[in-house]
Known about the structure:
Strand content: 5-15%
Amino acid sequence: MTTTQVSNDDIVKVFQVRKYDATDKAWNIEIRGMWDSVSCSCLMIETVGTLCSHIFAVMKAENIRTIPKCIILGRWTKNAKIRVCPHNINEKSNSPYMSIEAWLGSLHVACRNLQRLATNSSEAFEIAIADIHNLSLHMEAMTCDKEKEKLKGQLGKRSHV
């Protein structure tokens, strides 16, 4: 793979990674700060939860000898079981493990596992479909309740103005 630095400012560095023999395909890797966060246009870390070869290519080009903390997911650490659920389930945790990307990755893995199990029999499939439908309805109701509370708060602010 070839790595080229596309831009460099105080906040974000952007690299472009290409395979040696493929000039038409390229991936962009953004590094914020001193490896405070990193993302790749292939979205492998966000969807699957594992690092892509593109990020490793940039690490090699930048002569990074240790794995930056921003790319070590909490679920890979010894404390993973302790940190799975925040103390107050109604509040988002500020820990890196509970970022949106981590939530998406966890949901993705859980859904893949559910797909595998639900296709074992028609009974398992019917149970899974019914439970998914009920869960979706519950999530929609939660979203609607939050939006109603938000609107009530906005109406209250307007009447005081």
